[in-house]
Specification:
The protein has 864 residues and is mainly alpha-helical. The protein is 67% helix and 5% strand.
């Protein structure tokens, strides 16, 4: 069947191929609904560049649990990476660079089919390649069904992670028009109502061709009916082959298909000649998986189970070592013993290749059939499952499985494993914000393990308590527990626990004010983590260094630290750790006055479907603070949510920032009298033992609310100068450390010239609500109220800046972002950010609506 209406896509692929041939490799994410012709498009393009490129195709499976790195397995021999793939000790840090080098060794077109079914390791490989296509002569086309990719789908996450990569492009394959469907019907010579055919198929090429291949005047209502109508014309022997092929899998060995069906090659040939199957090498496959699914769904349950039993027996007899396939067919026929044998092995292989989501699924399957196993074996499965869920941000499932495992260990009387389980329950509870449970389990772990003597498990239990104490603000206890952990870890020779304990000790020392020694411990932890490839511990070190630098208002240093950690995690595709660091960086950027950049970064983090609880609050804080300063009416709901989350943890590091938000929000809204009540509980809990910079800020807000707190610490210089009424000096001090918002607040306490500058500065910082609060407070005190800068930003009711008014004027003219960028000598991306800000401030959803209300915003043109 001819390829119709695909010229634009083929032209685009040719352009991308020209880039790739010149050493600027490209990754193309080719989406379209099932049956849209993505594979046909890739094959046609491969035909057009035949002789100029090596053509390789790897596919993901449609099974319940896909093969780890399945598409790479398909092309491993051609790429020469089979040995690395089969190496049980291989790490992706070695394998992935080998794959990239092999793909780019000669000009290559690599098609990765059905990425929506891909395993976690394959997603990570595509993410890795997408960030590193430049410098190789390769075009990678990854196809996927966009109608099967929801917002939380791992592929959606991966595409979001690659959205800013210059080497990655998205293509969408449209369905056929009515004219193309009519042309296909005419070519097929089928007497059918073409209009009805188009309406019933929506122009889906596969659906259309299946109906036309049936050569019937009656239009099937579904593609399933169309496929089954073609299958019905087969002989009984060929139909048994077709059923067997559907159960064997998307691509199955011809010999096994025949053995399972009990038929001969003549029946198989009939399926091929009828267009339902096609052969490639020793295997046979359906022309499209939609057809295979149609056949599978038509099988009675008993027949399907019997076919699965036969496939399992045939694979075992052939000596197959593919535990994933063996487990899948064992489940299909209900063979519990085979599931218990093969599913854990499949999980082990998936874990080795870092396909942790798939490993968790295999272990979940094994647990369903685990009742006949001894309690120790069931506990082992639950512990493995819990760890895989932890790695894949399924924290609730991880906690439940670990609890069940501890109950089994208690029944057995295995004290060491009970203690390890209790320590994990503490960690998982903390990650979910359940700090009381975390403390209880942490104490239980120490009590269980101490009678058993020293060792790495006890050392980690000590270090876990140190971590909780450090988070709760009790630095001396954190140091004591951390040093016990470090001593025990060194005695046991466990470097991972050493890195963990050094991190806790360093953070506690920094919090206590011992900057040099604290930083030295954190650097030592970081050195161990980097040397041993302990990515989580490396990220923790950068977070703790950066967060404490930020708390001490060392903002320039904090930004450098956090960006270094982010670069490390991005380079290794550690996206969940990247999110944690990015949340903290967003807060630093907001403090430095980069409001738009901070909010964009924080919102990118918050939109991520795999965001953990511990990463959520740091990203919420800058978003809410920007909303307060901008006067967003939705901020009260956001404040209530983050306050509830912080209260659940009971940790000062979360309670204090939220208390500062609530205080500033009350002042901004003209409710300064509420500040003391809103912050009393947090002040009482944290006043004696937390970072002076943070406490000084809270004390400032409480003083505005009427509190007369006795301070147990020396005020940092900028606050002391503000308290003494030395507005200019205080503002200079704030400016030096990079906090322009507080510099403006300092000026607001000065003479009329200072207050005018303060209002102007707040407007420039995109804090119009804060500027209005300053003006309101001055009026209440009977002081001159500055009219503010005579800029267009204050000459309109929406609070647009001068640049935003320029942008709005160009929107009225109907100009595109590119045209505006050319006229104003800006980058197109910068214009896009300005347009988004204009729409937000005007409260309109589109450019056309913004243009419609512009008459009330823009100054009237002067008469000529």
């Amino acid at each position: 069947m001819r390829l119709l209406e695909r010229d634009a896509e083929l032209t685009a692929l040719s352009s991308y191929w020209a880039d790739a041939a010149g050493g600027h490799g490209r990754l193309i994410l080719l989406g379209g609904e099932g049956g849209a012709g993505k594979t046909s498009l890739a094959q046609e393009f491969a035909r057009r560049i035949a002789g100029r490129a090596r053509f390789l195709v790897g596919s993901s499976d449609a099974g319940a649990t896909p093969r780890p790195l399945g598409p790479l397995v398909d092309v491993a021999d051609e790429l020469g990476v089979r040995a690395g793939l089969d190496d049980p000790d291989v790490r992706r840090t070695v394998l992935f660079p080998q794959v990239r080098a092999a793909i780019g060794r000669v000009p290559t077109l690599l098609v990765l089919e059905d990425l929506h079914w891909a395993d976690e390791a394959t997603m990570d490989l595509v993410r890795y390649l997408g960030r590193r296509m430049n410098g190789i002569s390769a075009l990678v086309v990854a196809t996927f069904r966009d109608d099967e990719v929801a917002r939380t789908h791992p592929l959606a996450v991966m595409m979001g992670d690659l959205a800013t990569s210059a080497s990655v492009a998205r293509m969408q394959l449209p369905l056929l028009t009515a004219a193309a469907v009519a042309e296909l019907a005419g070519t097929a010579g089928c007497d059918i109502d073409v209009g009805a055919l188009y309406r019933s198929t929506d122009g889906n090429p596969f659906f259309v061709t299946e109906v036309l291949a049936g050569r019937t005047e009656k239009l099937p209502t579904t593609v399933r009916d169309a496929v089954l109508a073609r299958a019905a014309r087969l002989s009984a022997q060929a139909r048994r082959v077709l059923d067997a092929a559907a159960v064997v899998g998307p691509s199955g060995e011809a010999g096994i298909v025949l053995e399972v069906s009990g038929q001969n090659s003549t029946a198989l040939d009939e399926c091929v000649s009828g267009g339902l199957l096609f052969g490639h090498g020793p295997s046979v496959a359906f022309r499209h998986d939609l057809a295979r699914q149609a056949v599978l769904e038509s099988l009675p349950p008993g027949s399907a189970a019997e076919l699965h039993r036969r496939v399992l027996a045939a694979l075992v007899a052939s000596g197959s070592g593919d535990d994933r396939r063996l487990a899948q067919h064992a489940v299909g026929c209900g063979d519990g013993a085979a599931v218990r044998m093969h599913a854990p092995r499949a999980a082990e292989q998936a874990t080795r290749l870092d396909s942790h989501r798939e490993a968790a699924e295999h272990l979940r399957t094994a647990i369903r059939y685990a009742d006949p196993l001894p309690a120790a074996d069931r506990a082992d499965l639950l512990e493995r499952y819990s760890y895989e869920c932890y790695l894949t941000s399924q924290s609730v499932e991880a906690l439940d499985a670990r609890r069940r495992a501890v109950v089994l260990r208690e029944a057995i009387g295995d004290a060491r494993r009970i203690g390890v389980g209790e320590r994990w329950l503490s960690r998982l509870s903390w990650s979910l914000g359940r700090n009381e449970d975390a403390e209880r389990y942490a104490a239980a772990a120490v009590a269980t393990l101490e009678p058993l003597g020293s060792g790495a498990d006890l050392a980690m239990a000590y270090s876990n308590v140190s971590l909780l104490r450090m988070k709760s603000g009790t630095a001396e206890e954190a140091l004591a527990w951390g040093r016990r952990a470090l001593e025990a870890a060194r005695a046991a020779g466990d470097r991972e626990v050493q890195a963990h304990a050094l991190n806790n000790i360093g953070a506690a020392l920094l919090r206590r004010g011992d900057l040099l020694t604290g930083r030295a411990h954190l650097d030592q932890s970081l050195d161990i983590a980097l040397a041993d490839g302990l990515a989580e511990h490396a990220a923790r070190a950068w977070v703790n260094i950066g967060a404490l630098q930020a708390a001490k208002r060392m903002l320039h240093a904090a930004e450098r630290t956090l960006r270094t950690g982010i670069a490390y995690c991005v380079e290794r595709d550690l996206d969940l750790l990247t999110l944690f660091l990015q949340g903290w960086l967003a807060g630093v950027l907001l403090e430095r006055g980069e409001t738009d950049s901070a909010v964009r970064l924080a919102q990118d983090v918050l939109r991520h479907p795999q965001l953990s609880f511990v990463s959520r609050i740091p990203a919420m804080l800058p978003t809410i603070l920007a909303s307060i300063r901008r006067g967003d009416p939705a901020v009260e709901g956001q404040l209530a949510e983050v306050h509830q989350l912080a209260q659940g943890t009971g940790e000062p590091q979360r309670l204090l920032p939220v208390a500062l938000l609530r205080a500033e929000a009350a002042w901004t809204a003209g409710r300064s009298a509420d500040i003391v009540a809103l912050t009393d509980e947090t002040w009482a809990r944290c006043a004696l033992g937390w970072e002076p910079w943070v406490m000084a800020e809270l004390a400032w807000w409480r003083a505005i609310g009427g509190a007369h707190d006795m301070l147990s610490f020396e005020l940092p210089a900028p606050f002391a100068l503000m308290q003494q009424g030395r507005a200019r000096e205080s503002a200079a001090a704030w400016t030096e450390i990079g906090r322009p918002f507080w510099a403006a607040l300092a000026l607001a306490g000065g003479d009329p010239k200072d207050t005018s500058e303060a209002v102007a500065a707040l407007i420039r910082l995109d804090a119009p609500a804060s500027a209005e609060a300053v003006r309101r407070d001055l009026a209440k005190r009977g002081r001159p109220v500055p009219r503010g800068p005579r800029s267009a930003a204050l000459a309109n009711s929406a609070g647009l800046t001068g640049r935003q008014l320029d942008i709005l004027g160009h929107l009225v003219e109907g100009l595109s972002d590119a045209e505006i960028a050319a006229r104003l000598t800006l980058s197109e991306r910068t214009v896009g950010h300005h347009v988004s800000a204009v729409l937000r401030k005007l409260g309109v959803p589109s450019r056309s609506r913004a243009a419609a209300v512009a008459a009330a915003i823009l100054p009237a043109p002067s008469a000529s």
